[in-house]
Amino acid sequence: MKTHFSIVVWMLVVSIFMKMAVFAANWQFTGYERIYFFGNLFVIMIGVFLGIRLFKALSPEKTGFMADVKAGIKAAGMYAVLMSLFVYLYYSFIDPSYFPLKIEEQMRLLEESGRASGDELVKSRETAQFILAPYFQSTVTLILYLLLGTFYSSIITFFVRKVRNEV
What we know:
The protein is an all-alpha fold. The protein has one domain (4-94, 135-163). Helix content is 81%, strand content 0%. It is built from six helices and no strands. The protein has helices at 4-24, 34-58, 65-94, 98-113, 119-131, 134-163. The radius of gyration is 20 Å and the shape is elongated.
């Protein structure tokens, strides 16, 4: 891969493929839905590593620790922005019934448990409708992927430098 953007494009292809596979197989409300969650963690790790590796390969001189970290964050940041856009579009247009079904399931479980009734159920529904909405989920995705990308970038940079005896 020749640019950070090409790395991000491949990261997006893999992530979108995983999400659409879960959707096509109708696994949204099963344990197989975790494939997408854990798969994306792996995709971010690989993308950060490839971003750091590309940066080191293109750099004519020895690179510093922070420069390597920034190279990993660059790939993770672009991926985070584009994935948050995909999450918004997915839950708004591709699978708009996901969150209403999830809210109804949570309300049913709350009612059956006997922990809430009347006014508490109404407040719980309002909170669920705020949290389980495409805009909120895409914002959370953006923030978490940026934080995770920064964390992975620093850890992977440390290990890459350790293996190359650059520490």
